[in-house]
Write a structure and sequence with these properties.
Elements (H helix, E strand, L loop, with lengths): L1 H29 L2 H22 L5 H19 L4 H10 L5 H10 L1 H13 L6 H11 L5 H8 L3 H18 L8 H23 L3 E2 L5 H17 L4 H14 L2 H4 L19 H16 L6 H14 L8 H14 L3 H15 L1 H11 L10 H12 L3 H14 L1 E2 H13 L3
Parallel strand pairs: 1-2
C-alpha cells in the first residue's frame, strides 16, 4: 500500500512538471485546447494505472506524450466528422518513439508549442479572468482549487471560467500561433500577466508540501525571455524578465536542507546566483533605455534590484523600496501592493507606521482570507513587544495557508511568542 502511494505521488510530481509541454504539443496536433487537455488527462490516468506496477519509465514525459498521441489518433479514427483532421495529423505529425520525442523536446519544438499555447489561451476573445484561469490550469499545472485560492474566489467560479474558455476557443477555432505586429502588441500584456502569475506560483506555491516549484519558475522565465526577444521594444517584457531573473537568483537560499522556508532577511546572500542578478539588472536597464515610465513589472524589478545590490540585509535601502512601492501602488493599485508597501514602510520608518497601514487594510474583502495579512501584522506586533496578539495573528495565518511548509513556519513563529 505504501509503495503504491509513493508511486502515485511520483506520478503526480511528474505531471506537474510535464503537463504544460504535453498539452501544448497535443494542442498543436489536434487544434483544440480542450481536447488536448482531455487527452493529456487520459495519459495521466493510464500512467497512474501502469507505473505503480511496471515502474516509472526513464523518460516519463516522452512516455506520456506517446501515450496521449496514440489516444488522439484512436479518437480521431473513431470520429467520422474528424476525418480531415485525422488525415492531416497523419501527414504532419509523425508518431514519435520515446527516444525521438526526447530529441524533439531538446530541439525546442515543444518550447515553441508552449509559446503558441499561451498566446491562444490569452486570446482577446476571452475575458481577462478566463485567460488567467485557463493559462494557469494548462501551462501552470495548477488545480482548479489552487487557482481559486490564489485569486480568493470560489472554486466553482474558476471551474466555470475554465470550461467556458475552452468551449469559446474551440467554437472560434482560435489558431495556435504567435501573432505579429499590432496583434502581438494587443495580446502581449495578457501573456505577460499569466507568465508573471506562473512564476509567482513557482516562487511561493499556493499549496502542497513544497514551498517553491523551481521548474515552474524556470519555464516562466524561459517564456519571458522568448517574449522579450520577439517584442524588444516593449519595456514591460524586459521588466518582467528582469524581475524573474533577480528573483530566481535566490532559489538556492529560499529553503534550507530540510526544505523549510528561509525568509529574505535570513538568506545567505553570498549564495545568490550573481549571474542571474547581472542578467536581471541588464534587462532592467533595457527597459529604462526605452525612455518610457517604468510599468508594474519594471517597478517590481527595481525593488528586487534594491535587495540584490545590498551586500547584507542591514544595507538594504528600505526608504527607496518604500518609494518604489508608492510608485507601484499608483501604476497598479491593489490591496496586495499596499500590504507590501506596509512592510517596506515598517522597515524604513518603524513597525508602528507599518501597523497603521495594515490595520487600514483589515476591512478589505479580498484580503479577508489572505494569510499574509495576519502574518505581516503578527511580525509588526512582535517588533512592538505585543507577543500575545502576535501569536494569535500567526495562528490565524497558519490556518489560512494551504502550503504545508509555510504553515509549519507560521506555527513555529506563533510558538516563539510564548503563551
Amino acid at each position: 500500500m505504501a509503495q503504491a502511494i509513493d508511486a502515485h505521488r511520483t506520478v503526480e510530481a511528474i505531471w506537474r512538471i510535464e503537463s504544460a509541454k504535453l498539452i501544448a504539443g497535443l494542442a498543436r496536433m489536434v487544434r483544440d485546447v480542450g481536447m488536448a487537455e482531455d487527452l493529456a488527462q487520459d495519459a495521466l490516468v493510464i500512467a497512474l494505472e501502469r507505473w505503480p506496477v511496471s515502474g516509472i519509465p526513464d523518460k516519463p514525459g516522452a512516455w506520456l506524450m506517446t501515450t496521449a498521441k496514440r489516444r488522439a489518433i484512436d479518437l480521431l479514427r473513431r470520429s467520422k466528422t474528424q476525418v480531415r483532421k485525422y488525415e492531416e495529423l497523419g501527414r504532419t505529425a509523425p508518431t514519435y518513439a520515446e527516444d525521438d520525442l526526447e530529441q524533439v523536446m531538446e530541439d525546442g519544438q515543444i518550447g515553441d508549442d508552449l509559446l503558441r499555447l499561451i498566446f491562444a489561451t490569452c486570446h482577446p476573445i476571452l475575458s481577462r479572468e478566463a485567460r488567467v484561469a485557463l493559462t494557469l490550469r494548462l501551462l501552470g499545472g495548477l488545480a482548479t482549487d489552487e487557482i481559486a485560492k490564489a485569486f480568493l474566489v470560489a472554486e466553482s467560479t474558476i471551474a466555470q471560467r475554465i470550461v467556458r474558455a475552452k468551449r469559446t476557443l474551440s467554437a472560434a477555432q482560435v489558431p495556435l500561433e504567435v501573432p505579429e505586429g499590432e496583434a502581438l502588441r494587443e495580446r502581449l500584456s495578457a501573456v505577460l500577466e499569466v507568465i508573471y502569475l506562473m512564476f509567482n506560483e513557482g516562487y511561493s506555491a499556493t499549496s502542497g508540501g513544497q514551498w517553491i516549484r523551481p521548474l515552474l519558475c524556470q519555464e516562466a522565465l524561459r517564456l519571458g525571455r522568448m517574449l522579450a526577444e520577439i517584442a524588444p521594444g516593449e519595456s514591460e517584457a524586459h521588466g518582467l524578465v528582469a524581475l524573474m531573473e533577480i528573483q530566481s537568483s535566490r532559489f538556492k537560499t529560499r529553503v534550507d536542507a530540510a526544505g523549510d522556508p528561509v525568509l529574505l532577511l535570513d538568506q545567505n546572500r553570498a549564495r545568490w546566483d550573481h549571474l542571474l542578478i547581472r542578467r536581471g539588472l541588464a534587462a532592467l536597464e533595457r527597459a529604462r533605455k526605452l525612455g518610457r515610465p517604468l510599468g508594474p513589472y519594471a517597478l517590481q524589478a527595481a525593488i528586487a534590484a534594491c535587495h540584490a545590490q545590498a551586500r547584507t540585509a542591514d544595507e538594504t535601502d528600505w526608504v527607496r523600496i518604500a518609494a518604489l512601492y508608492e510608485a507601484l501602488s499608483r501604476a497598479a493599485p491593489s490591496p496586495v501592493v499596499e500590504l507590501n508597501r506596509a512592510v517596506a514602510v515598517a522597515m524604513a520608518f518603524g513597525p508602528s507606521f507599518g501597523l497603521q497601514l495594515v490595520d487600514a487594510l483589515s476591512a478589505e474583502p479580498s484580503l479577508r482570507d489572505y494569510y499574509l495579512l495576519p502574518s505581516v501584522r503578527g511580525d509588526f506586533l512582535v517588533k512592538l513587544g505585543r507577543s500575545s496578539e502576535a501569536r494569535a495573528e500567526f495562528e490565524r495565518a497558519a490556518s489560512l495557508t494551504r502550503n504545508e511548509r509555510e504553515q509549519a513556519l507560521l506555527l513555529k513563529r506563533a510558538a516563539e511568542c510564548g503563551g
